[in-house]
């Protein structure tokens, strides 16, 4: 059996968006039995994303839901002050529950942010997930690799996390996947606004699993197949100068 991998990607408009989504779609094109659920953080779907998806040759679902203004990051406010992608991931979960409600619809759900770096090997691991699978994530939480700790019996007993290690599941969004069956059985499980920084992952995971049920993957969590990379914001100072010459460079 070859369950479908559903990758849920929240995304928002910014100068690097098309570059990020191009990189991501090129990775996803290497994966079989794959379905991309892309959810724009906006009131309406944009033609930028629609065109990119149409031309991608991928199976996809294109959704949009805006983050309420009171939850939007204000100019100059640090990134981590407000939760990101919450409404969008929940919208994708709702779509899955409404459209893949049949138990014959075998699938695994992975939350794939648009700026991370994914190895093709990661998807071979995701495909194995029966309940909830976990694996190492590179370049996150102040560490080279944040990873599950495995005991001699091959059970997950925690994480090596240094940042807020007291979290119930001190893991990054990129470090786990959930079988669709569990999300159907726990039909209220979703992300929440009302959790402090770093607790999104714990919020959803604690609704569907416990640490002793986690399935360690990626060679007993000894391999890194995903990195929490972040793209530098480009400096576009010269755009003003172009405008003054009656020219523009956006295309
Ligand atoms: N995101 C979004 N709206 C925003 C900010 C972020 O939809 O206002 C998306 C973003 O495209 C990414 C995910 O939410 O897929 C996580 O955001 P980001 O990568 O900025 O978070 P970080 O990696 O810094 O925690
Ligand atoms: Mn990111």
Automatic annotation (TrEMBL):
Gene Ontology process terms (BP): carbohydrate metabolic process; chondroitin sulfate proteoglycan biosynthetic process
EC number: 2.4.1.135
Its membrane topology: Single-pass type II membrane protein
Active site, UniProt feature: 201
Keywords assigned by UniProt, alphabetized: Coiled coil, Glycoprotein, Golgi apparatus, Manganese, Membrane, Metal-binding, Signal-anchor, Transferase, Transmembrane, Transmembrane helix
Entry GO terms, CC: Golgi membrane
Pathway: Protein modification; protein glycosylation
Catalytic activity reported: 3-O-(beta-D-galactosyl-(1->3)-beta-D-galactosyl-(1->4)-beta-D-xylosyl)-L-seryl-[protein] + UDP-alpha-D-glucuronate = 3-O-(beta-D-GlcA-(1->3)-beta-D-Gal-(1->3)-beta-D-Gal-(1->4)-beta-D-Xyl)-L-seryl-[protein] + UDP + H(+)
Stated family: Belongs to the glycosyltransferase 43 family.
Protein's name according to its UniProt entry: Galactosylgalactosylxylosylprotein 3-beta-glucuronosyltransferase
Naturally occurring in which organism (per UniProt): Sipha flava (yellow sugarcane aphid)
Gene name per UniProt: LOC112689189
